[in-house]
Amino acid sequence: MTTATPLNTAAIREEFPILSREVHGHPLVYLDNAATTQKPQSVIDALSSYYSTMNANIHRGLHTLAEEATAAYEDVRKQVATFINAGSHREVVFTRNTTESLNLLAYTLGARLKPGDEIVLTAAEHHSNLVPWQLVTQRTGAKLRFIELNDDQQIDVDTAQAAINANTRIVSIVHMSNVLGSIAPVAEISEMARSVGATMIVDAAQSAPHIPVDVADLGVDYMAFSAHKMLGPTGVGVLWGRQELLADLDPFLGGGEMISVVTREESSWAALPHKFEAGTPNIADVIAFGAALDFLNDVGMDAIAAHDAELTHYAVDRLSHLEGLDIYGPSDPADRSAVIAFNYRDIHSHDVATILDRGGIAVRAGHHCAQPLMRTLGVPATARASFYLYNERSEVDALVDGLLEAGERFGFERQI
Amino acid sequence: MASNRESQNPVDLDDLYRDVILDHYRRPRNRGAREDATVSAEGFNPSCGDEIQLSVAILDGAVDGVGFGGSGCSISQSSASMMTEAMSGRSIDSARVMSKHVQQMLTDDSFDIDAVDLGDLEALSGVAKFPVRIKCGLLAWKVLDQVLANATGESISDDGDIPTRVTSG
After folding, report:
1. How far apart are CA A408 and CA A406, in angstroms?
2. CATH assignment at residue B81
3. Are residues A230 and A108 in the same domain?
4. Which of A29, A104, A134, B8 is the most exposed place for a label (fewest CB within 10 A)?
């Protein structure tokens, strides 16, 4: 971990208007960042400014507004390319969200599979990187294989090696688990995928917000993530793919914008990335995503990663001192980032979440769109606290106090 | 604003976690399947994973006894536990009316709780003030509706939000 200067969270918090509101008479303690993050004023302003000053449909218009909106939209594509160290902005496709990016890949790549081919996922996938591939197996007769968790609830090189073989055509894995917080060794697994000639996909929905993500270092073929989990608006996802691979894929959705020449009988496709952006895209939200990337760059992804790691370490330490509290995921806090799933006493996570909410503390409870992982962990549900650059130690303390209160309500003696 | 609405009509955690609810959660009544069951049914809440299984002995047009199984939050499990006690010895018609009243209490703002006698089940009335928890309270009753329909030779479809089905009967 880099020795970045600690974040000035007090100053950062002032940029997020929602963080000054109260919930049930208490200051909001927002610990549901793995679901979606809050938005800084600059992102909110960018949305409003777009509609106030340059709203127009892009790419086709010949007037000034269309020109300005097109330039602003395409500038964000370049920003995204820089943010993930892509070879070209043509490799960046805007979608609705990570789920749509992964469905695009499952639909287009999946069409090439045949019975006997294998798709390798992990035991920790979000439903968004599981269900689309299940649909592929129904259509093609290809089979799913899973990289299992090791004894420390992590994906490691050995567990990956056990699942990848000569039949593997696609490896699609979560980079950072939205439940365990663990980070998979993607670069090593990419090597394995390449050695058997498989396509390598990484779901970076949780990692891109929290750690520097460099597609060249990771060695992957495709990567998917969402703007709304990294300070941007909802409704914008990114699919990154290596240019020669994207160029070789068939379109996913057909319509306006994605074509070159259309006759009654057939069409030819627009150049990358427009081949994959049929119809009017989410112009305003993409432009506002640019403001979110500016914010992240100004703070610095190394500094954010260090802050999240430090806070996670502190939270694991405080929570693990509570009697009857089970934390899921890697035992060493250094092996996880920003996400802590837990159960407390025999109190169901929904009761925990309701009681915490009455104290203004927002956490997630349930299966976290990862039902197979819940079964692997042997629990029906968990509570989950997840952090971001504006969270502070005092909020972890509030979480611990809230849990003690929940314990008391369910008849456990309060611990000191 | 939510905060304004709340200041006019404060909602407290004590409304949700009444003593009788926590008591049924900690010491569930009639937990386990009944060997003499004539109808069994199950249901679950896809949004949170709560599950309830009921095994019900129906004798001469009345509920002789109910056993329940499943897992989930305090509201879903205590609602089931209280229901098993309230149903015992009740005619099918009376059971239907009570199920309807409890479900109205949980979902219908205009329901007049004073017009009916629901006994301990009135403790569930506070759940209505916590919109995201209403389905937790409803689950056991939706499964019961399947059982009662089956007992009189009917078949009802679930509403999709809370899938339920008869497993034997």
Report:
1. 5
2. 3.90.1010.10
3. yes
4. B8
